[in-house]
Design brief:
It is built from six helices and no strands. It is an all-alpha fold.
């Protein structure tokens, strides 16, 4: 009789204990994979809706799953084609350009004199120390 109680209570106690793993911050691998997939699809569909090329989307979101981004981009492309929806250009300044082009444009806009001297308004903690001659 005593061993029968253990046979019932022990698995029950283990199930109750393991059910609280999410409260401890331990993520379920299946839920994490589904979240990553959904996030990638959302990124891809947003890129397509804003008229960005798939390659630009990959460049702008290097940590996203490429297969999920492509699936979202393709689904949005099919949806937009079927419903004759035009892409919407981003209204933020510079948001329509890929990151590489933004960086190149910013580098061209800065004069060389200002690039060598730290800005006076920049906090001292963010300034780079000047190199002096010697070693």
């Amino acid at each position: 009789m005593f061993s029968t109680a253990y046979r019932i209570l022990l698995p029950l106690a283990l199930l109750i204990g393991l059910s609280g793993c999410e409260l401890l911050g331990i993520e379920d691998p299946a839920k994490e994979a589904a979240r990553v997939e959904a996030e990638g699809k959302a990124i891809g569909s947003a890129c397509r809706h804003s008229g960005r090329a798939l390659e630009d989307c990959f460049t702008m979101n290097p940590s996203a799953s490429k297969s999920a981004v492509f699936a979202g981009w393709r689904e949005m492309n099919d949806y937009m084609t079927e419903n004759k929806i035009e892409s919407i250009r981003p209204e933020l300044p510079g948001a329509g350009m890929p990151l590489r082009k933004q960086a190149a444009k910013a580098a061209e806009a800065e004069p060389e004199e200002e690039a060598s001297e730290p800005a006076a308004s920049e906090p001292a903690s963010r300034r780079r120390p000047r190199r002096t001659g010697g070693s």
